[in-house]
Amino acid sequence: SKDIKYTGQIAGSSLDISVGIGIGNEGCRVKINLPGGLSWGDVQFISAIKTNTGDCALATELKSSSRIPADPCKPAPCVLLEIIMKDGSKVNATISVLPFCTVSCDCWIFQQCYTNYTPNYACGIPIGEPINPYWAGMKGMWRPKASYAYNSGRTQSDNIREDGVFTDFARFTWENPAAKSPKWINATTITKYSPYGFELENKDALGNFSSALYGYDHSLVTAIGSNAKYTELAFDSFEDYPPGCNDNHFRFKNYTQDTTSATSHTGKYSLKVSPSSTSFNDVLMDPNCIFIPIDDITDPTTLPTIIPPQPVYAHTVVDCDCLGPFQPLPGKKYVVSAWTKETTIPTPTPGITNYTVPKMKISFSSSSVVYTFAPKGNVIDGWQQIFESFDIPTNATGVKVELVNTSSNRNVFFDDIRLHPNDGNMVSYVYDPVSLKTLAELDANNFATVYIYDDEGHLNKVKKETTEGFKMLKEGRINTKKINE
Hints:
The chain is mainly beta. It is built from no helices and 30 strands. The strands form five sheets. A ten-stranded antiparallel sheet has the order 9-10-11-12-13-26-27-28-29-30, with no helix packed on it. A hairpin with a 4-residue loop joins strand 11 and strand 12. It is extended, with a radius of gyration of 31 Å.
């Protein structure tokens, strides 16, 4: 059921074949050896495949539903091809699995300990690896790239039924967009797409970027930012943990075990930081990957220089091909916000009006600048907010975000952590990780609008977080009439 592509070379009684199964990311290289004195010109057809775990003398026919057992750290099994020669005789040709066979295929399993090339599109593609850009979602998909608006004068009179007609018009030259009229203004250019088809970043006519983050297995939008690039937004609500291997835009992924449902600012989970402990997230910054159009992909037409040869791939991954994690730009001002809560051990102390234990620390690689932020403002329903701005040093090559518990006898919880440019804006969303219903929407100040559902899944309450606490915006009930009621 898969597309099989192969290349082969005959040398005497040996046939050296490179086989690619599927899209090209599963491949093996095998050599088929005829008994001495025979040549492939005398072969009529292959009649059967025989196999045994080790002893070729005991090889039996492999049925279509069978699989060849293989241990990745033991020699490959004995595999024979029963071949009918043109004179009617039968011979057994041996199959040698060459060292770079690294992938288990659906029909034949050939595998050895040597791992020269193991692409994994689901979990990210290493820089420098050859890939098929069509399979990786970089090419071959029809989707909007740019939109244009015609900028022209309009007729003006006192008759509103006739006003607003273009004073001139030139059609858009689809056959040659470069020759279009200068009055066609590039209103929007989409600069990043998710491999799952979602638009992640666009640029307007003034060069301002807008972007979106997706979570919950790349199915739901979790944040939208204006005047901010995709790599300048960060949000973590600790709901859809543990994160997948390709879901690391901004995650405290090494602290999955510390997420807890004991308390939360929004949603169902928060991150617990034990007494005298720190949780941190390291982010590397790469100012060179600022703007790469989605179709700026070089397609070499020659076979990649990989020895032994691989199936032909169309593109070698470079750093700017990747969507990129959170990578703030050096020399720019950013805003960080989060919600914190502290509790004494073992019994929580009620009535605390200001938290002094939780801290958020931001430091930089190649720079001695360190920021330490504490929560301030009113304690709202047990949570207090950190909301600060900071400048990234021009020589910074990385940023480290630390969630710190300075107490020896109190637990600290963090939730709804966000970072974005100071001259930008951001809203974010929290969902139920099971039902995927919207649980909260966090506004530009990181204050929540909370949605509460009844046992049947109907929305019955909407509450808004303010500096004076939560206020009820809407409340309702839904009843289904029972039979004979």
